[in-house]
Design brief:
This protein is α+β, with helices and mostly antiparallel strands and 205 residues long. 32% of the residues lie in helices and 30% in strands. It starts with 5 loop residues before the first helix and ends with a helix.
Length: 205
C-alpha cells in the first residue's frame, strides 16, 4: 500500500472535511437520527446464584426456545433479539427485547404478553401429566411500567420447576425477562428478580 506524503495526507484530510461539510449541509435541519439499540442485561445484573456465577451469551436475533411455547404466536409479527444466560447448576435466564417503535402498539403488546404468561400456565395445567400454579407479583414503577409473574410446575414423574417472568416497557420498546430453575415458589428470588427487571427496563434507552 503506497504511503502518503505529508502534503498528500493534509490534502486528503481537507477533502474529507469538505465532503463531510457538504453532507451535513445537504441534510435537512432537524432531521431525525436513528435511535440507539436497546441495551441488554449483563451477567452481573441477574439475581445472584448462591454457588455459581452467571454466564452471558451474545445477543442473538429471534426468540429464545424457553419463551416460544408461551409467547411464540404473540411475537410472530415482530423482529426481536435476545440474550441467554446460564449458570453451572441448571439455573437459566433470558431477556428478549422487541422494538415496536410506536408507544400505543408497544403497550398493546406488553398487555398481551402479560396475559399470555397466565394463559401459558393454564395450558400447562390442562396437561394431565403437569400441575401448574400461577402467582402474580404485581407491578413495578419503572418507565412505562413492568409486571412480574411466577409459575410453578410439577410433573407426574416428580420433576419440579419454578419460573419468574416479567414484562416491561419504555416508550415503543418491550422487554421480557425470564428466570428459571428446578424447585418451587420457596426457591424463587422474587426481590432480586424485581431489581433485575427494573434494571432491564431502565437500560432500554
Amino acid at each position: 500500500m503506497p504511503k502518503l506524503t505529508r502534503a498528500g495526507a493534509l490534502t486528503a484530510l481537507v477533502v474529507a472535511g469538505l465532503a463531510a461539510g457538504t453532507a451535513l449541509a445537504a441534510a435537512p435541519a432537524g432531521a431525525a437520527t436513528k435511535a440507539p439499540a436497546p441495551k441488554f442485561l449483563s451477567a452481573s445484573e441477574l439475581p445472584p446464584h448462591p454457588s455459581s456465577g452467571w454466564i452471558a451469551d451474545k445477543v442473538t436475533d429471534g426468540v429464545p426456545e424457553e419463551m416460544r411455547y408461551c409467547f411464540g404466536d404473540a411475537l410472530l409479527a415482530y423482529d426481536s433479539r435476545y440474550r441467554a444466560f446460564r449458570t453451572e447448576l441448571e439455573t437459566n435466564a433470558q431477556q428478549l427485547t422487541v422494538v415496536v417503535g410506536d408507544s400505543a402498539k408497544a403497550k398493546a403488546l406488553a398487555t398481551r404478553l402479560d396475559k399470555e404468561v397466565r394463559r401459558c400456565a393454564l395450558r400447562s395445567d390442562a396437561d394431565p401429566e403437569i400441575e401448574a400454579e400461577y402467582r402474580s407479583y404485581g407491578s413495578l414503577p419503572v418507565e412505562e411500567g413492568a409486571r412480574v409473574h411466577g409459575v410453578h410446575t410439577r410433573a407426574s414423574w416428580g420433576a419440579m420447576d419454578i419460573n419468574l417472568t416479567s414484562v416491561g416497557r419504555d416508550g415503543g420498546t418491550v422487554t421480557v425477562v425470564r428466570w428459571g430453575q428446578m424447585g418451587d415458589f420457596t426457591n424463587a428470588p422474587v426481590k432480586a428478580f424485581k431489581k433485575t427487571t427494573t434494571t432491564a427496563v431502565d437500560k432500554l434507552y
